[in-house]
Amino acid sequence: MDKNITDKIVSLAGLELDNALCVEVGPGPGLLTRSILDSGARNVVAVEKDARFIPTLEQLQEASDGRFSVLLGDMLTIDHSQIIRSGLEQKSNAGGNIKSFDNVHLVGNLPFGVATPMLIQWLKLLSLKSGIFGTSNVSMSLMFQKEVGDRITAGASDSARGRLSVVSQSVCDAFKIYNVPASGFVPRPKVDATVVQLRPLEKPLLKSSLGTLEHVVRFAFMKRRKMLARIFKDWDPQRIALLEECEIDPTLRPQDVPTEKFCQLAYIIEQRDIKLP
Ligand SMILES: C[S@@+](CC[C@H](N)C(=O)[O-])C[C@H]1O[C@@H](n2cnc3c(N)ncnc32)[C@H](O)[C@@H]1O
């Protein structure tokens, strides 16, 4: 990517830099990292899985005035306390005046195949306020394949609405901040990309575990063109009562159901330990 593009991404991400930790996931050769550092961020920690990029990133670390450190690791399995510790031990934090971070910004341009499972894991951690998501103010600015970005941000009745929309919006406000055409990358990929920002809802809609909500939406969206009445009848005609209980119109199709209603349904299903097919 061109530095103009990575600068734009960082500026549109609106990172609040006071008492903040920026976590970059998958920095690769460090282009986006440079833009984050140029924006004035004082505590940047990157997690990179591929050891081949580490020497370049270490050079960046040396030139960063103690504002940047890189960890070799897989973001799916790394212990988040290691990331927070690296941020707190940063030289820019000399004197230890920052004991914990008020703002955590997660920024990443991951390979498209990895980005979605990673997002699901982060949403789970966020719902539990665990790891780097234990901080009061968190934002995630993440690059996705455009179609995936459309799904994450789609509201009820939007044609792109799906499982990822409901699961993301049960805990976050999700919106696109920047579209990057395929021509913005070298080598040029086959698809366009979009940067989505997710910020935790002040009052999450999620009432069950995120895992239960995931099961419920997977079940509902398996027959996305059918009415809910049909989907539930095929499962067990008695289960249609669940829709009435949640005041969900049974003539709706899954994509028309607001996130809040799916959350209510998941809550009842979890509370009563109802097994979905
Ligand atoms: C598309 S490249 C990113 C390029 C870079 N952000 C830039 O602006 O030039 C994706 C990077 O994510 C890294 N990556 C993939 N899976 C990862 C994971 N699970 N944890 C950490 N890094 C990962 C890859 O090694 C690769 O360097």
UniProtKB/TrEMBL annotation:
It comes from the Eukaryota. It is an enzyme of class 2 (transferase). Keywords: Methyltransferase, RNA-binding, rRNA processing, S-adenosyl-L-methionine, Transferase. It is found in: Mitochondrion. InterPro entries: KsgA/Erm (IPR001737), rRNA_Ade_diMease-like_C (IPR023165), rRNA_Ade_Mease_Trfase_CS (IPR020596), rRNA_Ade_methylase_Trfase_N (IPR020598), SAM-dependent_MTases_sf (IPR029063). Its main location: mitochondrion. Its EC number is 2.1.1.-. One of its GO terms (cellular component) is mitochondrial matrix. S-adenosyl-L-methionine binds at residues 1, 26, 48, 74, 109. GO terms for molecular function: mitochondrial transcription factor activity; RNA binding; rRNA (adenine-N6,N6-)-dimethyltransferase activity. Residues 5-202 form the Ribosomal RNA adenine methylase transferase N-terminal domain. GO terms for biological process: transcription initiation at mitochondrial promoter. SMART domains: rADc. Belongs to the class I-like SAM-binding methyltransferase superfamily. rRNA adenine N(6)-methyltransferase family. Mitochondrial transcription factor that confers selective promoter recognition on the core subunit of the yeast mitochondrial RNA polymerase. Interacts with DNA in a non-specific manner. This is rRNA adenine N(6)-methyltransferase. It comes from Coemansia interrupta.
